[in-house]
């Protein structure tokens, strides 16, 4: 493992991410918009139609050199 931490801000980069959340108050179900395949996803926990929203989430980056061998 050999990488420097010169830019700590990039370690926990967060971005406003489009998500779908469950309208049911008793349910915490939600998913990232880019993980859905239908225009109106169904909650996997209570089968309610989900509503679109936004949430601050850690950015998903697939360019990390840590995972390359
Ligand atoms: Zn739900």
From TrEMBL:
One Pfam family recorded for the sequence: YdjO
InterPro entries according to UniProt: YdjO
Protein name: Cold-shock protein
């Amino acid at each position: 493992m050999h990488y420097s931490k010169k830019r700590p801000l990039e370690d926990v980069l967060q971005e406003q991410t489009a998500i779908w959340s469950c309208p049911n108050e008793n349910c915490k179900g939600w998913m990232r918009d880019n993980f859905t395949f239908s225009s109106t996803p169904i909650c996997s926990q209570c089968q309610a139609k989900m509503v679109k929203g936004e949430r601050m989430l850690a950015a998903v980056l697939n360019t990390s050199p840590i995972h390359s061998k």
